[in-house]
Records
---
Amino acid sequence: MTDAPAPHPPPTEHPPTEHHGAAPRSVRAAVLTVSDTRTPETDTSGAYLLSELRAHGHEVTGYRVVPDEADEIRRALGELMQGAVVVISSGGTGITGRDVTIPVVESLLTKPMPGFGELFRMLSYREVGGAAMLSRAVGGLAGGTLLFALPGSLNAVQTAWTGLLRDELGHLAFEVARHGQPGGQPGGGS
């Protein structure tokens, strides 16, 4: 008989940097849900993101639910990027044949942020074990807009929001705008 592994300690609080202090308190953000079955009325993950963005003082500039079809995802992302500094999608990040969000998002990225997916899977591993490897969550810049693609489950969206995005959105927006970006301005698409 072996002892159960010790639980992972919670992430430590990190002191804000000077960039955090200069970061905007409100960021223009949009939400995209990719699903063949969800509607705006049944989209718990999208509703959670919308509620959290508003509760933390961010301006929601758009929300869509689209089927797991590459052309529809690409069109919706392009439209949502026009008015947002950050676009968060949920759904279509797994490995089934219908999961096409990641290739679409990756085709739009001008500066991938591999750390986002790595940290998301690390946090997910603490909750779901080895099944975390099934997530291809990804983030990065598309021109001057931050794109984050999350799995569609409410638990995964909550993990990404509370563990990664909630406390960093303003800082991320500050970093994007600080010296400008080739290929586009924040909220201006690519």
Note: Residues 33 and 65 are 5 Å apart (CA to CA).
---
Amino acid sequence: MGVQVLFHGCLDDFLPPDGRGQPATQRTSRRTSLKDLVESFGVPHTEVAALTLNDAPAAFETLIEPLESDHYLIRAWPAGLSGGLPGGHALQPPRPRPARFVLDVHLGRLARYLRLLGFDVCWRNDFEDEEIADTSSAQRRILLTRDRRLLYRRQIVHGYFVRATDPSQQIEEICQRFELHDEIDAFKRCARCNGLLMKVDKASVAHRLKARTLDYYDDFYRCNKCRHVYWQGSHFARMSDWVEALKQTAIEG
């Protein structure tokens, strides 16, 4: 049985260049779900916001039968299309608000950037794939990864394959994809461990600081988890400019 699948919008990112913009064909001799068919082309189900089967709304669990006489045309749409989804049929529930994330081990810099913007981010450099997937499901966290096979796991509802490889481009991509700009609350979390920062009395942390730091700064913040101490040093102005530039991108976009 031959099945044609047409991927719309950015779902083309997962296809070979010469296969984009046209129906892809898959042959199967067994009953199969639309989820498995879509992912056989390398497109994670978490990237698909809507499906139709022969122009009728369909779900990931919809099965097609291996009948030679039948013709199947599956269309797949990503989230965020300007024209909306076909018939208003959406497969994915609304994303968690405020946005919360879990990232795979290779996205440590992106995790730090998201924490600097105030987002609750779960990341460790020793995460196993199964633990990442379970955390995403149990805590309703958006899973970010550059391993598309991790996104194939059925328990993952909210997930995204990060296209960019440069961390500074990755944070722009994620803010755009999930429309995070209105949720940014910068400098309230520890970039190291995700803890919340609390303002503390200067005298209580003086023993941990260099003399010049004590001379030039009066306002200090301490992470409620790892106890790391922060202050608004020379880097703070640069980071503030960076945050404002991200917000401006949304206004101009």
Note: The chain has a mean pLDDT of 90.
